[in-house]
Task: structure prediction
Amino acid sequence: MPREEFACCHRLRVRWAEVDMQKIVFNGHYLTYIDTAIADYWRAIGLPYPEGYVERYASDVFLRKATVEYLGSAHYEDELEVLCRASRLGRSSMTFLFEIWRGAADLLITAELVYVNAHPQAKTAVPLPEEFRQRVLAFERTAPAQ
Amino acid sequence: MPREEFACCHRLRVRWAEVDMQKIVFNGHYLTYIDTAIADYWRAIGLPYPEGYVERYASDVFLRKATVEYLGSAHYEDELEVLCRASRLGRSSMTFLFEIWRGAADLLITAELVYVNAHPQAKTAVPLPEEFRQRVLAFERTAPAQ
Amino acid sequence: MPREEFACCHRLRVRWAEVDMQKIVFNGHYLTYIDTAIADYWRAIGLPYPEGYVERYASDVFLRKATVEYLGSAHYEDELEVLCRASRLGRSSMTFLFEIWRGAADLLITAELVYVNAHPQAKTAVPLPEEFRQRVLAFERTAPAQ
Amino acid sequence: MPREEFACCHRLRVRWAEVDMQKIVFNGHYLTYIDTAIADYWRAIGLPYPEGYVERYASDVFLRKATVEYLGSAHYEDELEVLCRASRLGRSSMTFLFEIWRGAADLLITAELVYVNAHPQAKTAVPLPEEFRQRVLAFERTAPAQ
Result:
C-alpha cells in the first residue's frame, strides 16, 4: 500500500530487551509497537485513549483478531516507522492496517488488527460512536470502507 | 478442534506484569505464551531448540505469519493451558495450531503460526530436515497435512 | 542465608523472550520473576493480591526500593527457584528478601525489596494491617524483625 | 543531584503494555528504560554497544548490582526523561547514576547501577579499556570518581 495512504506514523528505536538470541526482535513485541502506533492514532484524532474514549462513550475497544506477516527482521537499535490507518469502519467493529518499515527500502511487517467496540464490563458489542466515526473519516486521506 | 488432537500442552499462570489497565492480558503476550508452548514441543520431540535444531541441521526456524483470534480475555493469576500441534509440514514451511484455555470451558485464544526453515544467516528457505519431519509425524496423534 | 529460612519458593523456566543477545536473561526480568514469587507469597498466607488485600484492608502495597545483586546469569530454559521471605515488618513498611537459584549450586540473584503500605489513591503511608502482620508471623519460620 | 550533572538524557513515552492494574508502570520496566538510556550513552561517547565495544575491546559489560528507589509512579502516556551519568570508574567496574523525571517537578526514580567489564565467555573481570575511560572523562561534565 502506498505510504501516503497512512496518515499516522509512529517512530521508535528497537530496545536491547526486545531482541532475542536470534539477534532479531522477538515476534510478540511487534504487537507492542503496533499498540503504541494506535495510541498515537487516538491522540491524532483528538480522542486520547482511554480517558478520551472509554469515559466519553461508555464503551471500550477490544482486540478481536490480529494477523501479522513477518517479511523481515528488525535488529537492535534499528529506527523503525510504524504506519497505521483505519481501513474499515463496521457497525461495531473496525479494522486497522499497519506497516513497519526500516528506512524507505525495508518493509519488515504488515499487519491487520480487528477491534470491536463493546460495553466495558459486559463486553457485548456496541455500535461505534458516531463522533469517533466522523473523526476517523476526517483524519484519513482515503476513506475507510464502511 | 477436539482437545485430543493436541499432543502438547503447556501450563502457565498469568503474571502481574502481563496484565494491563483493562485488567486483561496485553494482546502481545499471548505470542509469548505460544512461544513457550512451542519450546515444549521441540523438547517433547527430542530436539530442544536451539541447540538440538540449529546446530544439528545447520538451519533455523523463522516465524513467517501469525494469526491470532481473541475470543476471551485472560486475567491476573488465571491458570492457562496452551495447546499446540503441527497441522501442516510443507517442503520448507510448517504450520502450528494453538488454543489457549482457562479450564475446560473457556477457550480464550486460537492461533495459527507459519514458520519457515531457512539458512541461519542467508535466511533463504531450506527444506525441513527429514529427521525433524519423522519426529513430528511420530509425535502427533493425527498426521499433519503434507 | 540458609535455604530453610525461606518459607516460599516459586519455580519457573526461563522463556525465550526473556533472553537477550548476551544469551542471558535481561536484567529487568528478574524483577518480574521476583514479583511472581511475591504473588505466591500472598496466596500462601491466604491473602491473594489484590482482591484479598486491597479490598480487604482499603490500602495497597507500593514498591519503595529494590536492590538486586547479579551473581550469575540465567540462560534460556533454565529451571529456576525464586525463594522469598519477609525479613522485616515495620509500622507501614516491610522488607522482603529473595534468592534466585539454578539447582542447588548456582545462586544467581539476591535481592531486597522494600514495600510501603499506603492509601490506594492518596498514596500516603498507612500502618500494616494487624491481620496481615499476624499471618506473616505465622507463616515465616524465623520471625521477621519488627 | 543537579540536572546539569547529567550529560546524557533519553526521552520516552510510557507504553500501554508497560502499565499494570495499579495504573502505574510495572517496577521492572524502569530497568528497561534505564537500559535504553545507557544505550544512548554508549552512542554519545562514540562506542555504540555491542559492536563498538565488545568487538573492539574483546571484553563485555555485565550488570553486577542495581539499586532503584521508587519515589513516584509513571502513568500511561507520561513523557519521561531518563538522565544518565557515569559517577565512578574503577579498575574493572564502573558505576552509573540515573534519574527519571516527568517534567521539571516530578522525580520518579533514582537508580545506581554497577557494571563490571569482563571477558565475554569466561566472565572474569578485565580492566576497563583505557580508550573507553578517556571517552567517558571527555564526555562527563564533572569527572567521575576513579
